[in-house]
Design brief:
The complex is a heterodimer of chains A (189) and B (420). Chain A has helices at 17-29, 89-111, 158-170, 173-179, and strands spanning 37-38, 41-46, 49-59, 62-74, 116-126, 145-154. With 189 residues, chain A is of the alpha+beta class. With 420 residues, chain B is an alpha/beta fold. The chains are: A alpha+beta (189), B alpha/beta (420).
Amino acid sequence: MTITETPAAEVDNGVNSDALLAARDQLREAPEAAEFVWRATSEWKSGTHSVQTIEHFDGLGTDQQHKSAYVLEGDHPAIFAGSDEAPTPVETVLAALAGCLTAGIAAVAQNRKIQLHSVTATLEGKHNILGILGGDPDVRNGFNEIDVHFDVKADATEEEIAALVAQSQKRSAVFDALTNPTTVNVSVG
Amino acid sequence: MAQKHTTTVVIGAGHSGLAMSYRLRERGIDHVVLERGQIADSWRHGRWDSLRLLTPNWQAELPGARYSGTDPDGYLTMPEVVDHIVDYARIASAPVVSSTAVERVSAIDGGYRVQTDAGEWHAKTVVAATGACTLPNIPALADGVPAGVRQLSPLDYRSPAMLDDGGVLVVGASASGVQLAEEIALSGRRVVISTGEHVRMPRTYRGHDIFWWMHHAGVLDERYDEVDDIVRARHVPSPQLIGSPERRELHLGTLQDHGVEVVGRLGMIRDGVALFSGGLANVTRLADLKQERLLDRFDEWALQSGRADGIPPHRPEPVTVPAQPRLKLDLVAEGISTIIWATGFTADYSWLDVPVVDRKGRVVHDGGVTEAKGLYVLGTSLLRRRRSTYINGAAQDSDDLAAHLDATLAGDSRAARVPA
């Protein structure tokens, strides 16, 4: 048995970083288990309103399931003649980016033994809608730019916090999905 | 042709293989050094004309041969590196067999069979010192490059004179990428450089070369088994540095001063259009933060060691990249005539028919010692310590592995441990 020294104040951001690091090492040995498939299903309701359900995914070589089915909705606001039952899907993209980067900050902080006190973010997606309306062929459909502003309170220097935020971008799936091209195959029938 | 016998076959007469030869001679171990071409072959052929070493001359020492020239702070040109290694082969009296390409190494009873294009050797032990930069790493997305756009790797590139007049896309911002981007931009061509994660370092800091700092502050002596994530660490791009007589700085900032356009990581080529990541600002920020941590460490060492004389601590300006970097480049329409894949290199172990190679073609080893008894690798990035990546890492690495090899031959499994 070894004697371990307990630090005066244990850093706890609610992230089990030891488990994440162990998973990384295990998946290097069994790379096929690292191949995940994320799933969502969607159903049109009326007008621009639709409902998405997320429950199952594949990973670690088998079917996986969330502890319950999660439901998201999408709609357009009244100024687009929508019924505004739910956020627009582009806003959900911003929410997904915030969720991903924030999770990354917590995980990296845990791994670097930095205690977080609060992490808040404000996101703005710059979007010229002439693109989706077909009003100007030079304007793209998607965001022209996204600004993310984080406020992080933590037991760390300004530089350490900047490094946390930078590292979370480096390891973010949604940041990658938004900043890099992805092949999207759409089929019907 | 009857096979020949020896105790150890060293494959490759570069600086690492020759350093190993020196160590084996020290220990009286019978060996040969098989070389596919001539001594220092890669340094003769796979390098561009203007290239100099990243490390200063005083670090070009090899076991039994210190640098004795007149310019310890300079950086060797490639012909000088070749001369240095050829001289070293003579000093080490290395038994080099030239023009002998190894085609296959396989296990046989009591050792290894080494098949070459000039006969066969049987040996109890084999040291693969075949080089870390044998094959260019060309990403699969290169398949999407339109016909008519010439593709080169740093192993093929020689000088701007070999290029068409059109624009050049350099993919990758390691030492190779930034050096080629600078040279080609100065030749008057339009250059776009695409960068993912990269490593920035100042050439000199507080009056000393960056390698002086890394050497004295102990960075180069960090061991492979002390590094946080060795798989990742072995694949970190080489630092943005150039060896030049005036010790000039080279980074994405200086490239932009020369008119080079910096774009994000190349993600895809779709219908002849190169698509770049919009995450450029983060990779430059990461590189600046990492550089600051490195310099913090040097300042702390300088203070503790009492070498904080002369120039006070200071920080290079962070690199500024366009707020809205280019995300697309239509290669043909924009007149890009050449793409240079400065996307790293891999070692070629395709000849190694021993089950120590992983699914990515890399030899699995513990500080150069493979699971196959008597089979070693030498001269690759961060093999046993950070210094292993550079020429003078061969001195200690070869000594450690020769000790292990010697003990293995003696059948002493307990002594056959790699010294810490």
